[in-house]
Amino acid sequence: MPVSRTFREEPGRGVPGHAVRLLPGLLTAAAALAAAFLVHRLVPVLPAMTLAVVLGILAANLPAAGVWTAGRARPGLDFAGKHLMRGGIVLLGLKVSIMDVLGLGWLALVLIVAVVAVSFGGTYLVSRLFRLPPVTSLLVATGFSICGASAIGAMAAVRRIRHVDTVLPVALVTLCGTLAIGVLPLFVHPLQLTAPVFGAWTGASVHDVGQVVATAQTAGTAALGIAVVVKLTRVLLLAPVAALAGAHQRLAPQTAGTADGTDAKLPPVVPLFVLGFVAMVGLRSTGWLATGWLEAGGVAQDILLGAALFGLGSAVRVRTLLHTGARALLAALVSWLLIALLGLAAALLIAG
């Protein structure tokens, strides 16, 4: 049929054409990610994931780069921010071992769950008090209380929140997590914190896994060990929180569907990528995977999440953020202080 031939020949349509449209953005993300890993290698205290977001923001706001990221590269960068993020979340499960989590003891587990629950509710309340939209408040609360940008991506997928609405929460959680790297170690001596207590505090209150490592390692291996386990326990809570969010979405069908109103289908209670995350946690917990496979999974996870974070960062326009994000920034700083205090209280009980 003539119509069919016209459709096939139209540039940019169909699977090959779609891949061509994605290629400039994906190649840009790959180049930026290589730069982020190089800087991290030279300055280990700077997490590669944080650098990926920062490079994305720079690319969006430098004149020539901004034209590129907003133009030809945009489809691929949006694809990275959405789909590569989900792949990275699946592989994040390979970092979590149920045995390590249970090794903390029941009191520590109860305290960590309490910190996540209270910080989630408290951050959402603070955000609403600063008159942030409900969607932004939900994403900020999720990112701050669980595991940063990865949790934001998971919640956005569960609630079918527009990709553009994740940009501000990711910027805020990256800013405050980076702030923690420089600020928290300053309190070790004034508060006379032991290495285990500081490590537990870092794991209970810092947002992203890479930021936790960068912060805790300043106090040595004893701090780093407990920080990672406490943090990964928080990461494990991503699955039940996503399931609760999905169940709530199904109980409120009038809000279901995409934000642009083009799809009114109810989302699944637990998305496939969250189930994949749980499956990877189970696989890691069996002890069947050799160290080499776990290391390869970690590298793949860093690549996927790093590309996704660069994609999200490349959508941040600083001028717009300064005009519209002042209240959001204040809400984030208050929330960051709240979670830091909650985490410190829990750390003193866990390792004090």
Q: What structural category do the secondary elements indicate?
A: mainly alpha
Order of helices and strands: HHHHHHHHHHHHHHHHH
**Low-pLDDT regions:** 1-12, 255-263
Q: What's the overall geometry?
A: globular
Q: How much β-strand is present in the residues?
A: under 5%
Strand tally is 0
Mean pLDDT: 87
Number of helix segments? 17
Helical amount among residues, as a percent range?
over 70%
Distance, first to last CA: 75 Å
Radius of gyration: 20 Å
Largest sheet: none
Describe the protein.
- The chain has 17 helices and no strands.
- The radius of gyration is 20 Å and the shape is globular.
- With 352 residues, the chain is mostly helical.
What characteristics describe this protein?
352 residues; 0% strand; mainly alpha; disordered N terminus; 17 helices
What's this, in brief?
The protein has 17 helices and no strands. With 352 residues, the chain is mainly α.
Topology:
Blueprint (H helix, E strand, L loop, with lengths): L1 H8 L4 H29 L5 H14 L1 H8 L3 H19 L5 H5 L3 H24 L4 H25 L8 H17 L11 H11 L3 H8 L4 H16 L1 H14 L20 H15 L4 H23 L4 H7 L1 H26 L1
